[in-house]
């Protein structure tokens, strides 16, 4: 399966550091976003451990069972973060979201914990493939809040599940058919808190843009909306081109054309 991808991580306009991490390994068909939490640089440590452990584990796994490999890698990431904070008291309480995407033949596979998201744009329709592990998402599913109200709720940052704080973690697994023309987006909540789904769909629908240009446009849009948080995006497009990707570039003040 031919893959194009773009990646970009930005500090945003308010935060003084970037606690997001990502991975994009086309050879292993692995893409992920991790959003750290914990303060005093602990969040950055947690997200980096999550990303590096996932890459390391997938690199040593069999390609025959991608879903099992994603699950095992996420379990290892959780254990490594938990062990690290046990050995280093100054990192106590750290954790990270994790949203990882893999492909095998004509199928996609997702492992997910936290409130980073995976989206799929297909035939002009944008679907959120993951459910947020957060208090406000529970209120949304209960019909108490609309999706548009999630980002303005005072408890929007209270997540109910993350990688690292506890010895075990429940990991959501998703799978589905992958088709030529699909565009997948993995992103931290620094994007979705300020950029509505309709705008995300519009940017991802521009077939003239490369995945890297799409990612840059998404991050620029988030920063123009105030950039209150770190924002990280990984855009993956399935098509007829050879595997290619671009390293993150500084965000431009004007959206890419």
Describe the structure.
The protein has helices at 42-59, 66-87, 135-141, 189-192, 197-204, 211-224, and strands spanning 2-10, 20-25, 30-37, 95-96, 98-104, 107-113, 117-122, 125-128, 172-177, 183-187, 231-239, 244-246. It is α+β, with helices and mostly antiparallel strands and 257 residues long. The chain has a single domain (2-246), classed as PPM-type phosphatase domain (Phosphatase 2c, domain 1, 4-Layer Sandwich). It has a 6-stranded mixed β-sheet with strand order 8-7-10-11-1-12. It is globular. The two termini are 27 Å apart. Residues 249-257 have low confidence and may be disordered.
Largest sheet features: 6 strands, mixed
Label the CATH architecture.
Answer: 4-Layer Sandwich
CATH topology: Phosphatase 2c, domain 1
Topology as H/E string? EEEHHEEEEEHEEHHHEE
- The count of strands amounts to 12
Helix content: 25-40%
| Low-pLDDT segments, ≥5 res | 249-257
* Order of strands, widest sheet: 8-7-10-11-1-12
- Averaging pLDDT over every residue, what do you get? 90
Helix/strand structural class: alpha+beta
């Amino acid at each position: 399966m031919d893959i194009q991808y773009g990646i970009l991580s930005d500090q945003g306009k308010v935060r003084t550091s970037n606690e997001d991490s990502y991975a994009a390994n086309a050879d292993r068909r692995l893409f992920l976003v991790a959003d750290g939490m914990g303060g005093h640089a602990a969040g950055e440590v947690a997200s980096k451990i999550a990303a590096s452990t996932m890459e390391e584990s997938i690199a040593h796994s069999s390609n025959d069972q991608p879903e099992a490999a994603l699950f095992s890698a996420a379990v290892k990431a959780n254990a490594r973060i938990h062990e690290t904070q046990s050995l280093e008291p100054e990192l106590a309480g750290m954790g990270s979201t994790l949203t990882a995407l893999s492909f095998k033949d004509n199928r996609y596979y997702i492992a997910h914990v936290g409130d980073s998201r995976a989206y799929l744009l297909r035939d002009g329709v944008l679907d959120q493939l993951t459910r947020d592990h957060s208090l406000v998402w529970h209120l949304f599913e209960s019909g108490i809040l609309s999706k548009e109200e999630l980002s303005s709720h005072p408890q929007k940052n209270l997540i109910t599940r993350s990688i690292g704080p506890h010895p075990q973690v429940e990991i959501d697994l998703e799978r589905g058919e992958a088709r030529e023309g699909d565009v997948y987006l993995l992103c931290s909540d620094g994007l979705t808190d300020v950029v509505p789904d309709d705008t995300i769909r519009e940017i991802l629908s521009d077939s003239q843009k490369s995945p890297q240009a799409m990612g840059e446009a998404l991050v620029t849009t988030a920063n123009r909306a105030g950039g209150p948080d770190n924002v990280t995006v990984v855009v993956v497009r399935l098509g007829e081109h050879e595997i290619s990707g671009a390293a993150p570039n500084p965000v431009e003040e004007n959206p890419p054309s």
